[in-house]
Write a structure and sequence with these properties.
6 helices; 0% strand; mainly alpha
Length: 172
């Protein structure tokens, strides 16, 4: 017997795959997986069917389900895409007092470096460019024989990025 909990689990699985596909195909709206096949889920299925040349019904029949699974598996099997997290505006500098995703990445790299090298200070990963982040960054710049500005410009970002990539290479 097919229970309502099993139905919700299948709908949630469908929604998760559609969400993942929507990250690559912007014509498909992003839906939050909640296990309820409502108007948002139906629209996402319609848009998926339209995007992939299927008969548009808004229903997740077997053919639609199979296509969603195939597309999702193809997408998750692709090589990793580069993450462009440093702002692309020329002259950008990230400094103390700022916050956000780029700061979190800076902190993550500095933290990872501190776990490998005793002469790098760890800093908490908060997304806030605080005094701990500043001290750790300044020490990194000093060790790299780079002007100790305590700011992350494109050159410092590239050095951090390369240092983080080098850690990945040494682990494999």
């Amino acid at each position: 017997m097919y229970t309502s909990e099993q139905e919700k689990a299948h709908i949630r699985e469908l929604q998760k795959m559609l969400y993942g596909i929507s990250l690559y195909h912007t014509a498909i709206p992003r839906i939050i997986p909640n296990g309820i096949y409502g108007a948002e889920s139906e629209q996402a299925v319609r848009d998926f069917q339209q995007e992939f040349g299927m008969h548009v019904t808004g229903e997740a029949n077997q053919a639609t389900w199979d296509k969603i699974v195939a597309v999702y598996q193809q997408l998750i099997g692709t090589p990793p895409q580069p993450l462009h997290a440093f702002p692309q505006k020329p002259g950008t500098v990230i400094m103390a007092g700022e916050h956000g995703f780029p700061v979190l990445i800076i902190q993550a790299i500095l933290f990872a470096l501190s776990e490998h090298y005793a002469n790098i200070l760890p800093c908490p990963m908060t997304g806030e460019f605080d005094n701990d982040t500043l001290r750790s960054l300044q020490l990194f710049q000093k060790l790299c024989i780079y002007p100790v500005t305590g700011c992350v410009d494109c050159s410092t970002w590239n050095m951090l990025s390369q240092a983080g990539s080098d850690l990945l290479i040494t682990k494999t």
